[in-house]
Specification:
alpha/beta, Pectate Lyase C-like, 3 helices, about 15% helix, 6-stranded mixed sheet
């Protein structure tokens, strides 16, 4: 789910409150992308906006529509760099490369961002870790953290893993949390893709 705040911000927040008044659980259990292209807030204004949204029980997964985000905030999801406060694996970024490979595992608290292509993880993605890829994501071990593929507006991207235990999945601008995923594929090889504007999941035989 995506939110796009617009000026004047007070009126936009009032509209948001009216929507929440009609549907108080609208954002419960959902990870939200905040599109800042129309607002372009400075760091202090953005922190204030984040506090306003947190007070409304809206969880922000990341940002798009800007080029840089202040440290301590969620990461950019499209064409950006992760927040400087995150513990990042050292991944070489080659402008001409279409894919990168992580030889080991991605540990809890780490984020890998590769907006120009596929990400392959030879090990596992731990709970609390995150992969953001412009293309597809391939995990040869367990996927226990968060995986967002197609972050460069690529609805044909897919996610593959050998052991399906994710906290959150996303492709293009659609996300599903663990509560929405169910348990029918838990611990099994799986693939995830978009079909008809919805996230689909199936066992990978």
């Amino acid at each position: 789910m995506a939110l796009k705040p617009e000026p004047p911000l007070a009126e936009w927040l009032a509209d948001l409150d009216r929507a929440l008044g009609r549907s108080p659980t609208l954002f419960d259990g959902r990870a939200v992308i905040l599109d800042l292209a129309a607002l372009r807030p400075d760091p202090d204004a953005l922190r204030t906006l984040m506090a306003d949204l947190i007070g409304r029980r809206i969880r922000i997964l990341g940002f798009e529509g800007v080029e840089i985000i202040a440290p301590g905030l969620p990461p950019l999801l499209i064409g950006g760099r992760p927040s400087g406060s995150l513990d990042l694996p050292r991944v070489p970024e080659e402008p001409t490369s279409t894919s990168i490979t992580i030889e080991g595992s991605v540990r809890s608290g780490q984020t890998v961002v590769h907006p120009t292509g596929d990400v392959t993880v030879m090990g596992s993605v731990s709970s609390g870790a995150e992969i953001l890829a412009g293309g597809s994501i391939h995990v040869y071990g367990a996927l226990r953290g968060r995986a967002i593929a197609g972050a460069a507006r690529n609805p044909r991207a897919r996610i593959y893993c050998r052991k399906f235990q994710p906290e959150l999945l996303g492709i293009d601008r659609l996300v599903r949390t663990a509560e929405d995923i169910g348990t029918h594929l838990h611990g099994k090889p799986a693939q995830i893709w978009l079909d008809g504007g919805a996230i689909r999941m199936a066992r990978l035989d």
